[in-house]
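Risk register update: the risk of archive-format incompatibility is retired. Evidence:
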Amino acid sequence: MGIARNVLVVLAACVGFAGAAHAQDLRCQSRNFQYQFCPSNGEVIDATLVRQESQAACIRGRTWGWSNNGIWVSNGCSGTFRVQTFQPMPPWSGGDRLRCESRGFRYEFCAVPQRVFDVQLIRRTSQAPCTLGRSWGWRDDGVWVNDGCAAEFRVRTQFSPSPPVRPGLTTCSSRSFRYNFCETGPITGAQLVTQTSQAPCQRGRSWGTTPTGIWVDNGCSATFRITPRW
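Archived output:
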């Protein structure tokens, strides 16, 4: 009744410094209605049935399923399965760019060997949203992601602030309604002094602060009074 298992690697896409996700098509057959296990290349993080090839039904959790190292079938189920696998990659090699991915919508931490001073999201590569504080964030030793967020981040491990407009004041503008971060140096907070845009500046929605600066979004432009942490 054909080959019991035959692994065909049909797609490989590197998506992070911490690891790479790969898609494989794996054919697995329950001969004579007996249990059969078909190993995969790499650690399995998800699997779907692509094509049923048997008259016997293939029902996930009953006649087929997956573990972290392959696909199992039973009760006559035979089919082709698309397997998402994870293969480790070397640790971060330096620079200021880091790609981090929440595989299978699970928490993932991407370590940075230097003390992190600030992190900015540069480009989201997932369909799932990446929201600071909810599905991604950072510590002084790396970046974390969750809930399917995958993105490229700019990691700052050294501090070189730009001088403010005048003591205690700085301006920050969201050009073309895009997110922008204005580094100020260590601060404990900020207050909006003068809004210079037609778009509203609402704290927590279109502007806010981090320990190292002010962010603006959705067209907000304004002058802010900062409280340095010296």
